[in-house]
Amino acid sequence: MDLLKQKIIDEGQVLEGDILKIDSFLNHQIDPEMSYAMGREFVNIFSDVKVDKVLTIEASGIAIGLVTAYEFGVKMVFARKTKSLLLNDDSYTADAYSYTKQVTNHITVLKKFLTAGENILIVDDFLANGSAALALCSIAEQAGCKVVGIGIAVEKAFQDGEEKLKAAGYRVEPLARIKSLKGGRVTFVED
C-alpha cells in the first residue's frame, strides 16, 4: 500500500532494537484518513471471504480494526490486555508477548462476544514475532470460530512472525512489509 509506505517514510522514526515508531498516525495519534484507507484496503484484500466479525487487540489495533469492521458492515471485538472487574471467568484467554514492550500480556475476550461458527478477520497494527496474532487466533478458535485471515498494517518481514502464522495455516496479508531498519533507514521488501 503505497500511501502507508509513504507515511512511514515521512513520519516514521527508527529506534534502536529494530523498533519503528509510527505514533504520529497509528499508535498514539490517529490519522483518520490513513485508518480509513487501511480499512478499505483490507476489505479489498479479503473480499473473497465472508467476514462476520473483526478481532483485534488493544490498543493500537482498535482504530484500524474499527474502520475495517465498519467497511465490512460487521462488529469489531478487541482483546483486552488489562485486568478489569468487568471481566469474569466467562472469557477466552491467551498469552501474547509484546516485542516492543518486552512483556507477556494475558489477553481476554468475553465469551458472549464471539459465537461458534463465525468467520473472524484478525486485524492488527504490527507483525513482528507473531505472538499477538497467534494469541488472537487461539481465542477465536477457543470460541469455535474460523480465522479467515490476518490483516496487518506493518510487517517486520525480517522477523519470523509471518512464517509462524503461515506454517500454522493462516492467511496473512500485510499492507507494508519492511525488509530492514538498518542504519535508521526503512527499506521495504518491494524496494
Describe what this molecule looks like in 3D:
The protein is an alpha/beta fold. The chain contains 6 helices and 10 strands. A hairpin with a 6-residue loop joins strand 9 and strand 10. The radius of gyration is 16 Å and the shape is globular. The mean pLDDT is 92.
Cα Rg: 16 Å
Specify the overall morphology.
Answer: globular
What's the total number of strands?
10
Q: Topology as H/E string? A: HEEHHEHEEEEHEHEE
Helix content: 25-40%
- Are there runs of 5+ residues with pLDDT below 50, and where? none
Number of helices: 6
Largest sheet: 6 strands, mixed
Strand order of the largest sheet: 4-3-7-8-9-10
Measured between the Cα atoms of the first and last residue, the distance is 13 Å
Q: Averaged pLDDT, please?
A: 92
Task: List the keywords.
6-stranded mixed beta sheet; 33% strand; globular; alpha/beta; two-stranded antiparallel ribbon; 191 residues
Brief account:
By secondary structure, this protein is α/β, with parallel strands linked by helices.
How do the strands and helices of this protein lay out in sequence?
Layout: H1 2-11, E1 13-15, E2 19-21, H2 23-27, H3 32-45, E3 53-57, H4 61-72, E4 75-79, E5 91-98, E6 103-110, E7 119-127, H5 131-142, E8 146-156, H6 161-167, E9 172-180, E10 187-188
Parallel strand pairs: 3-4, 3-7, 7-8, 8-9
Antiparallel strand pairs: 1-2, 5-6, 9-10
Helix pairs in contact: 3-4
